[in-house]
């Protein structure tokens, strides 16, 4: 799945779209997506000068966007919007820096009529940078994407 297909599913746009492409997906089960981290990211100007590190909250946002793609690809949620409802047990284990390729691994745990729960892991060079459980609330889309 490439950029245009991603934008058809989720409302995020530049400069806050953090999924470059989808590597693999089994609808309603799991997804692996990629975020290429570059020095041109606007947040590196202030986080931190001389020691650029991707903010943890943006790693979580990247995971949330990948999870949204998985959730919204489901026929029951297609053309809706997934809102982040909760973040549980987030752990940061490694820094993410410019030049890193962030692999976003999402596995569906539960799916109900208006919500989904996923296990999420961000990986760089085979090492876990962040792991968490994310809860999503799915609602009707307010505006056309």
Automatic annotation (TrEMBL):
It is found in: Cytoplasm. Keywords: Cytoplasm, Lipid A biosynthesis, Lipid biosynthesis, Lipid metabolism, Lyase. One of its GO terms (molecular function) is (3R)-hydroxyacyl-[acyl-carrier-protein] dehydratase activity. Gene3D superfamilies: Hotdog Thioesterase. The keyword Lyase applies. It is an enzyme of class 4 (lyase). The keyword Ribosomal protein does not apply. It catalyses: a (3R)-hydroxyacyl-[ACP] = a (2E)-enoyl-[ACP] + H2O. Its EC number is 4.2.1.59. Pfam families: FabA. Its main location: cytoplasm. InterPro entries: FabA_FabZ, FabZ, HotDog_dom_sf. The active site is at 47. Involved in unsaturated fatty acids biosynthesis. Catalyzes the dehydration of short chain beta-hydroxyacyl-ACPs and long chain saturated and unsaturated beta-hydroxyacyl-ACPs. Belongs to the thioester dehydratase family. FabZ subfamily. PANTHER family: 3-HYDROXYACYL-[ACYL-CARRIER-PROTEIN] DEHYDRATASE. This is 3-hydroxyacyl-[acyl-carrier-protein] dehydratase FabZ. It comes from Limosilactobacillus walteri. The gene is fabZ.
């Amino acid at each position: 799945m490439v950029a245009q297909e991603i934008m058809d599913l989720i409302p995020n746009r530049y400069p806050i779209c953090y999924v470059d492409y989808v590597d693999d997906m089994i609808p309603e089960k799991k997804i692996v997506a990629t975020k290429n981290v570059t020095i041109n990211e606007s947040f590196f100007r202030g986080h931190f000068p001389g020691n650029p590190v991707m903010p943890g909250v943006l790693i979580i946002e990247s995971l949330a966007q990948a999870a949204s793609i998985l959730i919204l690809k489901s026929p029951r949620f297609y053309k809706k919007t997934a809102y982040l409802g909760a973040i549980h047990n987030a752990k940061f284990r490694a820094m993410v820096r410019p030049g890193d390729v962030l692999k976003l691994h999402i596995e569906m745990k539960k799916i109900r009529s208006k919500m989904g729960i996923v296990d999420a892991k961000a990986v760089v060079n085979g090492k876990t940078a962040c792991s968490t459980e994310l809860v999503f609330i799915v609602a009707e889309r307010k505006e056309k994407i």
